[in-house]
Structure formats: C-alpha cells, structure tokens
Amino acid sequence: IKPTIEIERHRVSKGSGTGLIIVAKTTTSCIFGSSALGNRKIKPQLTGEKAAEEIVNALLSGGCVDDWLSDQLILFMALANGQSKILTGALTPHTISAIQVATEMTKAEFRVE
User: Fold this and answer.
1) Are 21 and 50 in contact (CB under 8 A)?
2) Three-class SS state of 23
3) What is the Cα–Cα distance from 22 to 34, expressed in whole angstroms?
C-alpha cells in the first residue's frame, strides 16, 4: 500500500512547543486520528514518534473508529432510533463510562462483543 501524504506547516505560533496531528483514512472509509504535543524540554522527534505510535495502534486495533471517537459516539447511539453499531478496538475507560452514563440517562441497552 502506498500512502498519500499531505503535510501542512504552520510556523507562526504563540508558544515554544511543537504539535502534531495525524489523520489516516483507510480504503474502507475509516478515519483515525492521533495527536501529540511537545514543549521545549521534549525533542520534536519524540513528539512525532508519540503521534505515530498512537495512529499505528489505532490502525492495528481492528476497529473503524479511534479511541478518541468511540466514547463520543455512545451518546448518539443511545439517542438514536433503532439499533446502532460501531466497530472499535479495546474499550477505553472513557468509553466504558460513557456506556454507563448513557444507560442510566436514556435506558438504552448496550451489548459489547
């Protein structure tokens, strides 16, 4: 697989740190994201490695949404009519909490396989 890479650089900033956002769009229309922030004490390469490791882990998780999106989708699933499904990697503590809160508030039922 040959990835398409787009790079945007924003050199004007108000701080002295680094920031990186990576977005991966798969051939099956899944979209994953990762990010990392650095500061003067952290080498920019380490910031890049952290963001890259996060996106690779998301892609290898077997899901179609990343850790940062899965917990946010729970509320919409609870409020939707009918049945909703998402394919995600291992559940994060935030996702588990979102399921618990959504169940309490809406009486929606969730099944995790």
Assistant:
1) no
2) strand
3) 5
- The pTM (predicted TM-score) of the whole model is 0.74
Place of tokens 């390469």: 45
User: Which residue, chain included where needed, has tokens 């990186």?
Assistant: 20
d(C-alpha 77, C-alpha 99), whole Å: 10
10 annotated active-site: no
Rounding to the nearest 10 degrees, give the CA dihedral for residues 58, 63, 66, 71. -140
pLDDT by residue for the chain (113 residues), tens only, comes to: 677 778 777 777 677 778 889 998 888 888 899 999 998 898 889 999 999 999 999 889 888 988 889 999 999 999 999 999 999 989 999 999 999 999 999 999 999 99
- Indicate which residue of 86, 92, 94, 103 is catalytic: 94
Task: Quickly list H helices, 1-113.
Answer: 44-60, 67-79, 93-106
